[in-house]
């Protein structure tokens, strides 16, 4: 009997059939589409500039046969897609990278020397002996000056125009000279005070030489990084390769573009290492020549650069190298206390806002709008919420929660991890020109400026030492008074009065003794004064003070009547920047370039008054720190162990022996007040002594009593 077979002609649902047909059609379409058509389709998509570059490079590599398509995509008959291009791109980048490196090696100029033998090294040393200018750079395993180490020396002979690389610690089987031998031979040149040194970001190189090899570099004469800041503080990047591409018209790829994230010690092909490293010396020399030529066109800028900015490279390095000693037990206890406080604040806020996620702006914004009865632009703490905090205690609590949470996560919980094992200290890191006005800023993981008073107690004075705090008394106010020659301000400073209290007496019709430093009246007068300097509008000033726009305007007008020269100066500055596109800082020491002012943009007009004041304060701070560093170095040579520790806001911190004398205290104050003099206004400096913890200050008299002598 024949088996009964049931045939089903139903191959699936209609949708499944359609899907299969669509897939088949897609495969057919993909197999029929030419690569040229595929590229046209991909290039027509909405691509970012980075994607356009990627597509171009992958297309060129595919057409040249350097790479192929993804096998899986080809096997499935898929059309070339942007997603596939992204998968291919890493291989293309690697090929391009290798081609560039090979080309660098093949076309290395004859004045580029790779030093691998004593004979070659001695020839280089003979040239150096005849030089007056030496270009130098160090190649390292990384960028931490306490943990990373030198793997090779880059040395350039300026007059001979010879540039060399001496590899010493690469992970390679190729021939390298002994690291100690090379350091011993180069040390006399590095430490020669007669021989002028040129570098790019030379502070880093100087630190590596000191920390790794015990070499104390002398006469760092020209650093092309701060020189570029002097010529154009608005550069998008101050990296050597980017500056060489822009100004020398020498296309140059950055380290990361050529080697990724590997340390230079991992570059095992020494010809490749040499071709890359030696070029740094050549580019630095050419960039120095270019910059020096342009600096000479502005004698006041050139003078300031050599007399202030160049010494400041070493000053910053010396200051950073001192480092803070921290109390790790106190840090842990404070971190736990702060964590509990954050938790309590969060619970209270969640309860007040009906259980929402207060870390979600989308959930928080409607609740805050309900609370304030106004439509909020965002929940930005500084811009939107801070002006409302005075009116709404719940917003004040939220801002404290956010501030404490940031303090904990960014600083307190991580501070002990930032202590360098090699030194046992927490080292700050500064950008000498962090702001475009020349003001310092902190970089790296530790920023002492952001530590509130309670958190500062984590930092302690070492045994038999104290921390001396010396501030610039009302620094920006004095600079403004001297610059504008405003009689009201000059008189206040000459009479030893607080200028903001003096202004408040006029605005609020009160006697001087009726207003103290923490009063609302003083705060409002100071804000009104700064409004002229910072170009603050009436609305913004009102928000800062919790008053109406009209009240802010009225207060500014009252203060303006007392300071007509300041008001006039602000107007003149705005007219100057409209005509010239820049304003001068200091005695024409540097420029703040504001080119958008020439296009009618209003924002540079606000900076035209702020930059000269803030910038001159930066100049005063740098000159003072240079003088302080110089004096303390002399004291150390005479057996008195004083070190510049940090600069925080308008204060300089010095680590001093516990037996600091009255005379030494006076000398410290003298540096603060006499290093940079103002026209018609005397500088002042208050002294505070931190005997155990930074944050627990005592005055000199109390300090001597507690010390017992």
UniProtKB/TrEMBL annotation:
UniProt-listed PROSITE patterns: DNA_POLYMERASE_A
Gene Ontology biological-process annotations: DNA-templated DNA replication; double-strand break repair
Gene3D superfamilies per UniProt: 3.30.70.370, 5' to 3' exonuclease, C-terminal subdomain (1.10.150.20), Ribonuclease H-like superfamily/Ribonuclease H (3.30.420.10), Taq DNA Polymerase, Chain T, domain 4 (1.20.1060.10)
Catalytic activity: DNA(n) + a 2'-deoxyribonucleoside 5'-triphosphate = DNA(n+1) + diphosphate
InterPro entries per the UniProt record, alphabetical: 3'-5'_exonuclease_dom, DNA-dir_DNA_pol_A_CS, DNA-dir_DNA_pol_A_palm_dom, DNA/RNA_pol_sf, DNA_polymerase_A, RNaseH-like_sf, RNaseH_sf
Record carries keyword tRNA-binding: no
GO molecular function annotations of the record: 3'-5' exonuclease activity; DNA binding; DNA-directed DNA polymerase activity
Record key words, sorted: DNA replication, DNA-binding, DNA-directed DNA polymerase, Nucleotidyltransferase, Transferase
Catalytic activity, EC: 2.7.7.7
CDD domains: DNA_polA_I_Ecoli_like_exo
Cross-referenced SMART domains: 35EXOc, POLAc
Residues in 3'-5' exonuclease domain copies: 112-296
Superkingdom per UniProt: Bacteria
Domain DNA-directed DNA polymerase family A palm: 454-660
Similarity comment text for this entry: Belongs to the DNA polymerase type-A family.
Listed name of the protein: DNA polymerase I
